Every structure is written in C-alpha cells, then in structure tokens.
Q: What sequence folds into this?
C-alpha cells in the first residue's frame, strides 16, 4: 500500500490581476468562476515529487486573477508521474489532496489581489441578517 500524500512545501511563483472596466463602472450579475490545474508533475524520487500549478479566477468580462506556483510532496510520486505521463492526470485521491492544497493556499492571495484590482472577492460573501429581539412580554408556547 502506498503512503498517503503529504504536501511539504507550496510556493507561489506568479501573481496576475486584470480588471477590464474602469472604477465606478457597474457590472450587473458578475459570474465568478474558479479553477485549479496541475500543469506539470515530476517524480524527484520514488517517494518525493513536484507539481506545478495554476489557480484562476475569471470574472465574466470584468477581469481575472491568475496565480501560478509549485509544490513539493511526499507520497507515491513515481506512480503519480507515470499516470501523469500516460493519461495527463493523477489518481483522484492524490488529486483531491493537491487541489485542496492549491485552493486553500491561493484563496487568501486571491482575496488580496482582488481587493487591489478593485474586483469582487472570489467567493460569495456571507449575508448578515440581524433580527430584532421580540418585544418584552409573556412568552407563549
């Protein structure tokens, strides 16, 4: 049985933000799409590997954010690299770990990039709904 995948290092190598509209122009119903992709996977040894990645946020005609980087990992690197070469993808269990690490690491930077480029945050903001307390009086069940 192969050892579980462990991300040992993740670093961002490129950050890019672009807004297409001027400040003050309002876009109605902006659709925000995000995705992460592995652009290269290499086995450094039987149990260590490297994966280059890209995290993108697209604001339907309003702008985009691109973050590129590289991560090092421990796990079934040789098996993953063989699968990558043959099929252009990696097993789903390892893919879940890698993509979760990409999204969780890049989302913080994406929020800051979006703020600097005057774009909406790359995820829906929670709605706050403060309800008024009931008027004082007898409690009825």
A:
């Amino acid at each position: 049985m192969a050892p579980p995948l462990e991300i040992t290092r993740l670093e961002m190598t490129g950050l890019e933000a672009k807004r297409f509209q001027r400040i003050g122009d309002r876009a109605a119903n902006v659709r925000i799409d995000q995705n992460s992709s592995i652009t290269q996977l290499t086995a450094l040894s039987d149990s260590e590997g490297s994966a280059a990645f890209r995290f993108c946020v697209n604001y339907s005609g309003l702008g985009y954010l691109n973050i590129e980087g590289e991560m090092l990992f421990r796990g079934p690197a040789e098996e993953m690299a063989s699968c990558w070469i043959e099929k252009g993808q990696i097993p789903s269990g390892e893919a879940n770990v890698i993509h979760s690490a990409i999204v969780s690491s890049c989302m913080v930077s994406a929020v800051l990039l979006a703020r600097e480029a005057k774009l909406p945050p790359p995820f829906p903001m929670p709605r706050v709904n403060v309800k008024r307390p009931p008027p004082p009086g007898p409690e009825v069940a």
Observations:
- The chain has one domain: 6-116.
- The mean pLDDT is 88.
- The first strand starts at residue 6 and ends at 19.
